[in-house]
Structures are given as C-alpha cells and as structure tokens.
Specification:
By secondary structure, the chain is α/β, with parallel strands linked by helices. The protein folds into 3 domains: about 220 residues, Thiamin diphosphate (ThDP)-binding fold, Pyr/PP domains (Rossmann fold); about 160 residues, Rossmann fold (3-Layer(aba) Sandwich); about 170 residues, Rossmann fold (3-Layer(aba) Sandwich), CATH 3.40.50.920. The chain is built from 25 helices and 18 strands. The protein has a 7-stranded mixed β-sheet with strand order 7-6-8-9-11-10-16, sandwiched between helices. Strands 12-13-15-14-17-18 form a 6-stranded mixed β-sheet, sandwiched between helices. Strands 1-2-3-5-4 form a 5-stranded parallel β-sheet, with helices on both faces. α3 crosses α11 and α20 packs across α24. It comes from Microbacterium psychrotolerans.
C-alpha cells in the first residue's frame, strides 16, 4: 500500500517521519504526472509545490486554519492531501475541479482563480477570526510570485501591516515564473535574492549545523532560527523591503527541503503576527520534460505521454489565437505605431510572434490588467495604437480603466479578448461570458465578434484603423471555426449568410454562433419556415441593416455565447424599440449564473444553444400560437402578399395571448 493512498486527511501526516514525508512527496509527483498526463491540467505549478504543500498541512490544521491559494491552479497537491485522490475526471463534468471548489471540500476557501486577490481574502478572514474570539486560529495564504506583480497584492500588504495582532502567514511561492518567467522590478529583485551565492552558502551551513546537533538542540534551533533568518534577510536586503511594511520576513528557504520548510513554518506559526515566508521552488520539479520546456515548464498541458511529455491530443487545425498572432504581425509590418501589450500572458494570447518580430514594441506588465489598460490610454495619447491582448475573463478586472481612462478620453485602443465565451474545463472563474454584456455599457465602444479566421483578420485590420475610441475583438478558445462565406455584404458591413423569400425568422448569429444559426435556418427550411441569417460582424453598435431586416421579419432570434442578460440580444431589442420596430425578439445566450467545469459542448447544450434545440423552439413558436407563418418557404416561392401580417396584426396577436 502506498503512503499516498493512506492519506485521507491532513492529520494523517502527523505521524510520518521525515523519510516517510520524502517518500510521500515522491509518490505525489508520480501521481500527478500519471494522472494529469491522462486528463490535461496544470502540471508544472503543482510539481513545484509538493514539499511546500505537505509542510503546510503538517504544520497547520486545515480547515480550522484556512488555507488560501493564489492562484488556485497550484492546489492539486492540496486536494490530494485533503482526501480527494480520484483524478479520473479532473476538470471534466462530475470530476474534480482544476481549482479550489467549496462544494468539494471544507478545506477549499477561495474558488476564484484570478491572481493577486488572496492577500485581501486573508486579511479579511484573519480580522474576522480575531474579532470573533477565534484568535488561536491561523490564516495561511500561498501566493505565487507572479501574483506580486498585481496591484491588489500591494494594497493588501499595506493594510495587513496596519494590524499586527493576528495570526496570518503569507507564503511566497517563488519559482521565478507566473505563466512564463515573471517580469518587472519585483521579479528582478526576487531573482537577485534567489541566485545570491552568499545567501545559499550561509543558509546551507546554518541548516547543516543545527541538524547535526540532533533533537536536544531543537529549542536552541528554534531560538536562533529567527535571528539567523533575520541576519540573512538583512544580508540580502529583503528585510529592507518588508520591514518598511512592518511585516516579519523569514527566508528565503529551499521550497523542496521538507525539514527546513517545516521548521520555518512552525516558527512563522509561533509569531502571533503577520509574517512572510519566502520559499524558493522549481516549477516542474522532478519531471524532466517540464524542466526542459523553456516556454512555460508545462504550466498547463493537454493529454501527454507521461514518459516523454509529448502531446497526445489531436491538433484539430489552426487555433483562433494563431490566426490573431499571424495577422497582428502583418499589422505591425504595415504600421510602426502599433504596440502590443499583455498582462503576463505573452505566449497564451498570441503575442510571441509579434514580440519576436518587433521586440521593442511589446510590453508585458505582469498580472496587472488595470495598469495595462490605463497605460494603453497613455500610449494612445502619445500617438501610438496599443493592441491589448487579454483573456476575456481577466478583462473584468479592468472595466473601470476601459470606461474612464480609454473611452472617456476617446483613446484609440484595441482590446483583443482571447478565450471569450464558454471555455469549458477551467470552470466558473475562467469562462469569458461577461465581456459582451459588460463592455457594451461603455459609450462609443465598438465590439467585433469574428465567425471564422478570415473575419478575424478583417476585423482586426478594421479595429486598429479606429483612433477615436476603444475597439474590441473577441474570439473563443480552441480551433478556429470553418470558413463561412457570406452571400452578400451590406453597406454597413453586415454579412448575409442565408436568405429566404419568406421572411419568417431573422437569425442574428454573433461570431462563431453564426454557424449554429445557419444550421438552424436549414432545419427551419425543412419545416416550411423561411429564415434569414446575418452575422453583424460588428455586434456593437447595432447596425442599421439589422434594424431594417428585423422590421421585415416576424421574429428575431439572437444567438450568442455570452450571458443573455444584458447581452447583444438585449441591445438589439432596445435598438429595435427605439426605432419603432415591434418585431418580437428572443435573446438566446448563456444563463446569468456561474457555470461549473465541463466541456464547451456540454455547457452549450445545457444552455439550449444547439441547432436542434433552437430550431425546435422556433418551430413551436412560429407554427404554434405565437407568431403567424407565411407558407411557401419550403418551395422557395414568394410569400403570398395577403399572408404577411402587419405590425399591428402582430401586436394584436400578442395582446390576445395575454
């Protein structure tokens, strides 16, 4: 029986010897490689925190001592040690989430996987425990060093130092990387500490000395440990950084040396005040393919060969991100005023080819979306055109800057939102379903949603030509949709994809959902219902031709993979009412709720966003009592004039149904 299989909860660690803990760490690494290779997931970050997580659960009493992970992708080992060892369906429906999730365990506190928020959580939880008479409990926040590039972290540190009478331990998991290598002044500072030979030599010597003294010297060890760390901290200037914040500092310590980690965490636990433990770890530790991956050390992988690390997933074709990456280089070739920006996601958002071609025209600001957007406004003021590439879910964090810094100042900034819409296995905090509803509130904004790769190229070129306000291009995760040519492009840029002589239903397909709309139209045609399908291309503002087409149809159906409350469909309805068009509108989209991890296909099916379900519902409406239908659509004959109900007729029919 393996040691890992005997661990049903953190307190099972208490009776293990140092050698057994080391064996457990080895088993955990083997488990992670074997299982994540089969399902995909965040492998590199978790291989790097094996010893650290074991030490944390050995010293602290979760869930009595709440543990908060920032970001949550480094929580796989935490799941294993808290009794969740069935990784069969990791990140799939009915399987474990890829991030902490309260419904799984009382040991999970914060579900959001957006970086840099954990210290604010820890500050609040520790204050609450102190004020409610539970001062003996500890709060532990595990912060990846990349999170230190986010402004919230420093806001929290400033406030944490304002109240020292509480048990709060902040563990900085310093592996020199967020997704890719961590950037910025803080990263350079930590790197100097991490690589200082003078520290490493002195640190190793002190540890060896006290270990040789044996158990009898434990009291002496604990007594001088703080002094040793204090001396080393001053020697490496770390104390100068944190002492100004009035927060005690221990480290740096080897994040893979279990005895040292345990001793250091015990000392931190005994302080009775906020303390920072600086642990130096290695992302991808113990797995050669990850360590050889210079790009991101297997930060997140699909299905791989556990021996070689080679991908086993089908390529499936060109990704949306790749199309954007290629076209942005073309834009850069044509315009030397175009600057690319991102927030610690250079490679994932497709900016690497641009950076390789134009290394002095790319800014990676770290995990600091708010700063990126406000800085982009400044770049635009200075005569440049920034293209800010961010995951759609992370755009939520910079809404105020889009509104007040970019839009208010009519700054020509293009936002490219990758992973927009339903993303699937990463769960609630990573779905990009809020951007359409959120951003269309911004005055003078223009939002494009390409339906295929060629439209992405077109719309990016159109977006960077706008210099009097923000533009947005958003596209989903995964392989780009097949090319879907238009029958006709109207004067305002709207593409007509399907026409019918019978004007029963107007289907407005937003971006990739246009493919579903075309499928719906074909199903309706088989039922004798005429449907026109349009792709607005620029979903915001609503184009005049959409209004005109809606006026000549009996029913408008909008289809989007963002939340339907306040989405594009809602805007279409409002614009039609303002124009005096009384055509009924059904807005189809994702429900306004947090959506659990599952495949994109499963989630769209749950939301009723499949061609079969949409067509079934439309048929029920049109052939039922709701909307009169003009016969003749199936044969393609023009609709008999006398069978077209007027707007007052439709209004009366709706009144009758009430």
């Amino acid at each position: 029986m393996s040691l890992l299989s005997s661990i049903t909860g953190p307190r099972d660690l208490d009776g293990l010897t140092t050698d057994q803990l080391e064996q457990l760490a080895s088993e955990v690494r083997g488990f992670l490689v074997e299982n994540v290779a089969r399902t995909g997931g965040h492998l590199g970050p978790n291989l790097g925190v094996v010893e650290l997580t074991i030490a944390l659960h050995r010293v602290f009493d979760s869930p009595n001592d709440p543990m908060i992970f920032d970001t949550g992708h480094q929580s796989y080992v935490h799941k294993l040690l808290t009794g969740r060892q069935d990784f069969t369906n990791l990140r799939a429906r009915n399987g474990l989430a890829g991030y902490p999730q309260r419904s799984e365990s009382a040991h999970d506190v914060v579900e959001s996987s957006h970086a840099s928020s954990s210290l604010s959580w820890a500050d609040g939880v520790s204050r609450a425990l102190t004020r409610t008479g539970r001062k003996d409990r500890h709060v532990v926040a595990v912060v990846g060093d990349g999170a230190l590039t986010g402004g919230m972290t420093w806001e929290a540190l400033n406030n944490i130092s304002d109240d020292n009478d509480r048990n709060l331990v902040i563990v900085v998991n310093d592996n020199g990387r967020s997704y890719a290598p961590t950037i910025g002044g803080m990263a350079r500072y930590l790197n100097r500490v991490r690589t200082a030979e003078s520290y490493r030599t002195l640190h190793r010597g002190s540890d060896d000395l006290f270990r040789k003294l044996g158990p009898a010297a434990r009291a002496v060890y604990r007594g001088v440990r703080g002094g040793t760390h204090g001396f080393l901290s001053r020697f490496t200037n770390n104390a100068a950084l944190y002492s100004n914040l009035d927060i005690k500092y221990l480290g740096p310590v080897d994040g893979h040396d279990l005895p040292t980690l345990i001793e250091t965490l015990e000392l931190a636990k005994s302080y009775g005040a906020p303390v920072i433990v600086h642990a130096i770890t290695e992302k991808g530790r113990g797995y050669a393919p990850a360590l050889e991956d210079e790009a991101d050390q297997f930060h997140a992988v699909g299905k791989i060969d556990p021996i070689t690390g080679e991908s086993l997933g089908a390529t499936g074709g060109l990704a949306w991100t790749d199309v954007f990456a290629d076209e942005l280089v073309c834009v850069g070739d044509a315009r030397d005023d175009v600057i690319a920006m991102t927030a610690a996601m250079l490679r994932p958002t497709g900016l690497l080819p641009f950076a390789q071609r134009f290394p002095d025209r790319v800014y990676d600001v770290g995990i600091a979306e708010q700063h990126a957007v406000a800085s982009a406004a400044g770049l635009a003021f200075g005569g440049l055109h920034p293209v800010v590439a961010i995951y759609a879910t992370f755009m939520n964090r910079a809404f105020d800057q889009v509104l007040m810094d970019v839009a208010l100042h009519r700054a020509g900034v293009t936002f490219v939102l990758d992973r927009a819409g339903v993303t699937g296995p990463d769960g609630p905090s990573h779905h990009g379903i809020w951007d359409l509803a959120m951003l269309q509130l911004v005055p003078n904004i223009r939002i494009a949603v390409p339906r295929d790769g060629e439209r992405l190229r077109e719309e990016l070129q159109e977006a960077v030509a706008v210099d009097d306000g923000p533009t947005v291009i958003r596209f989903p995760k995964g392989v780009v949709s097949p090319e879907l040519p238009a029958l006709e492009r109207l004067d305002d840029g709207v593409d007509v994809l399907v026409r019918s002589d019978a004007h029963d239903v107007l289907l407005v397909g937003i971006g990739p959902m246009a493919h579903i709309a075309v499928d719906v139209a074909e199903r309706l045609r088989a039922q004798g219902i005429g449907a026109t399908v349009v792709d607005p291309r620029w979903a915001v503002p609503v184009q005049p031709s959409v209004v005109d087409l809606a006026a000549s149809h009996r029913l408008v159906i909008t289809i989007e993979d963002g939340i339907r409350v306040g989405g594009i469909g809602t805007r279409v309805r409002q614009v039609l009412r303002e124009a005096g068009v009384d055509t009924a509108v059904d807005e189809l989209g994702v429900p306004d709720e947090f959506i659990d991890h599952a495949s994109r296909e499963q989630i769209l099916e749950d939301a009723g966003l499949t061609a079969a379900k949409i067509a079934q519902d439309v048929v029920a409406q049109v052939l039922g009592t709701r909307i009169p239908v003009a016969r003749g659509a199936q044969s393609g004959d023009p609709t008999p004039t006398g069978q077209i109900p007027t707007l007052p007729d439709l209004a009366r029919s709706r009144d009758d149904r009430r």
